[in-house]
Every structure is written in C-alpha cells, then in structure tokens.
Amino acid sequence: MLEIGSFRARLCQGMNRRAFLKAGMLSPFALGLSGLPQSTRAAEKQPRAKSVLLLWLWGAPSHIDTFDPKPNAPAEIRGPFSSIPTRTPGMRFTELLPKLAARSDRFALIRSNKNFHSGHLEAGTLGLTGAADDKDAGLPNFGSIVARHRGAAGLPPFIAVGRGMPRDVVGMMKGYGGGNWGKVYDPFLVNCAEDGAVDVPALKILDGLTPDHLNDRRRLLDELDSVRRKGDQADQAKWDDTCKRAYALLTTPEARKALDLSREEEKTRDAYGQTSFGQSCLLARRLVEARVPYVQVNWSQYVETMTPNCDFGWDTHIYNFEMLMDRHCPILDRVFSTLLDDLHQRGLLETTLVVVLGEFGRTPKINAQASRDHWPNCYFSIWAGAGIQGGRVIGESDKIGGDPLTEPVTPNTVGSTILDFAGLDTQARAELRVLPGGRVIHELA
After folding, report:
1. 180-220 per-position pLDDT tens digit
2. Three-class SS of residue 111?
3. What residue spans define the domains of the chain?
4. Where does 50-203+268-444 sit in CATH, by number?
5. Distance set, CA 176 to CA 158, 189, 265, 271, 438 (Å)
6. Quick check: 188 and 29 in contact, CB under 8 A?
7. pLDDT at position 378 over 70
8. Angstrom distances, CA of residue 165 to CA of 131, 253, 309, 365, 440
9. Pick from 239, 255, 282: which is nearest to 4 by CA?
10. What's the whole-model pTM score?
C-alpha cells in the first residue's frame, strides 16, 4: 500500500502553513519538475544504461567473509567460513552466498576497490561523490549528477529508497545529495517497510489524506486550496507553485502505480523476502520499470548493528560472523539474486546498470572481539547489466585482502564509470565540473 500519511505540525487554528510549505518544497525533484537545470548535451549521447540502480551496503561489509575469501590465509585472517565454487571457474565466494555463487555469470566482481578515509561519514561521502578526500565534501552525489544531466519527466529523476538517508549516530553523511549544487538536487526519499508499506515523507501534507483522496482530484484540489486560503498573503506565489507541484505528483497515475507494491503478485513480493531491504529492492525495480534515471537503495539508515532502533547496518565491530551468518548474508544473497532474476526476466537488465558496494571493507586480521574493524584500503564492488559481461573478476587483492595488487578502483573511478554508463562522457563531466580526471573501468565493457 502507498501510504501518504499525516502531517502533524498544527496550530490551534489548524495547519501550520510553514510546515506545509516545507513539506511541499523539500525538493523539486520530489515533485517531478520538468524545468530543472540540466546539461545542454543530455540528449547528444545515448546512454548504455537508461537507469542506474545502486545498492548501498551502508556500514561496510567484510570483503573477506563474502566475495573475496582467503582460504589459504592463517585462521586469524580467513575467518570461520569455508569458500565455495561459483558458476565462474576460479571464482570463489564464502559459503554464505550460495544463490549468488550460482548466478556469478550475471555480474562482474571487482576486488580492488580503495577508499581514502576510515570514518563512515567521510568515506561514505567520498564513496558517493567520487571526492579524493573529505575536504571535497560539498560535491554532489552521483545520482544528483545523473538527475541534473537527464532532467525530470514525471517521476523524480533521483530517488533514494530505504529507512532514511544514510547516517551515523553523530550525523548524516554530506554526500547523500546535491552538495554545493543545493537541495534542489537532493534525492526524493521513499521509506519502505518489511511488509512493503511505502511511506513518502515529503508528501505528508494533510491530516487524514489517504490514497482515496488521490482518486478524487477535485476534492484534493479543494482541500489544498482551502489550506492555501488560510495562510497569509506573504510569499503567495511560492505557495501557489508548491500546491501545483504537490498536486501534480499526488495525482499522477504513473507515480502512484510505481510506488504501490500492493500491485505486485504475492509470489514476487515473497521472493524478495519480508525485510526492508528486500521490499526496497522490489520497489527499486518498479522505479526502474517506470524509467527513473537513478535509484539508490540504502541497506539501512544507520551503520551500527547494536544501536537501539537501528536497522542493522554492516558495521560489525562485534558479532561480525554471527550477524553475517544469521542475517546479513542470507538477506543479501536472497534479495540480490531475486533482483537479478527479476530484472532479467522483465528485459530490464540490459538497460539498467546495477552496482553493489559499501563505503569500505573490514580488517583482514580479526580483532579482540572476534570481529573486524574498518578497512578502507581494499574492498569489493559488483557490477551488472547494461551490457556488462558477467562471470569475471576485475582486479585482485593480496593474499590477506589487505591491499589491491592491481590498480585500485577509487571512488572517483566508480563515479566516472557510473556516469559514463548513464550517458555523461568525459566532455559532459567536464562541463558540469565533476570527477575531473576520472578513469572509466573499461574492463567492464
């Protein structure tokens, strides 16, 4: 069910008008504007990927315990899990990922990613903007760049799906949205619960507003107009514009259809599993089907696994092996396998670039808590779709997974490659002044 929800900010006379304005103007992207600034060359190059789908494994999964096992390393390095063969000769994963091992022919695996900061917020910002260090924290997210290049047409061009924007207990990463370009290029946030209930925070406008109201356009317009009349005359032009934007998205059948998981068959929803990440990936597939240019699915809002009210990120300083075995890897194995199958069966994989990664890896050596700590020197990423040849390993880490033996794949390289697939060649990136000198991973061709 698509839940619009209720907006709780009220005064004794009724709705707080400023709260309504804030809800309506969180981001023009949220309202599907077609008049946003965009690259003048947006239509000159046909992109290999009509859509980009980034699965952001916030908290940093252990590469050694997942896609880059070291079975011949000492016990304090290799950990407790055995490695298993995949469909690709010579490629081995840990025993926790049997479904993905059986589908290794559908994606390319990079084992030589490298970040430049060991803090979640800083590394996350670098990982999603391509910055060389945390001094460039004002750079825009890859999704913001794609959205600006493509422009908006109907649905927002950059949508983030999950339980909220990625953050740590100390704050939110700076690289989640438009950065120095401004909030106009921030992603449109959609929350997705374990049961598939979809909540759109930016559209929590009126108390009691339900999807039934959306089917009665005249009634909805009257209610919006009534709230408008209760406000003062200041900024009346902004108020009218906000109403038009909100009304346009709320009453667009394409938007409501894409965001409503109840339209999916029960067996499809069951295949993704009753987890927030699973249902978020199903929603992401629907958004790709609706031609949204960039979708980022956040595994969790918080990095921690033991913080109250968190949704179990990959930051496994303690209970690393227990969490991977009992929760994280079974969920990732099931959901990503289902997503690959689903995209392939619907003919979407050839036109969609799918990327899976976190902000860094975890220490080769097991710590005193029988777990692993932060390790930016080496980690993995997975690339599928958009014509990428699957069944290959690109790059290599050393015998303990401590450092790349081949040329490192940096956040700048990741971003340059994503943008190139999305239609932003070297000249387009230069015009937008993003990711200077970025190398594209040509091995993915």
Report:
1. 999 889 999 999 999 999 887 766 655 555 555 555 656 66
2. strand
3. 50-203+268-444
4. 3.40.720.10
5. 11, 11, 32, 29, 20
6. yes
7. yes
8. 19, 26, 15, 31, 27
9. 255
10. 0.86
